[in-house]
Amino acid sequence: MRSNKTFLFGIFFFAVGNGEVESGALMALRCDFREIGKQTAPIAVKILKGMKPMDIPSQLPLSHRLTVNLKTARQLGMTINPHLLSSAKRLIE
Fold it and tell me: Would you list the domain boundaries of the chain?
């Protein structure tokens, strides 16, 4: 496990993966790669049928996964909005 720099520097930070949240980051917002694969499949079909990739509009991921470290929030004296907590896929106690 990595050292927890959150408390060393007295700041919270956001991460892109659950590993960092497990190590003390306040929260992470990451893409759901399975959903990105499903979202990408129709684009691949268009390309295989001859459409030029530059003619296909870019897209943002439609699904995200939020992880919140409640222990870090408590130690920093923070209260996380209940609506945000209800949208989290994972809460770390």
Answer: 5-92
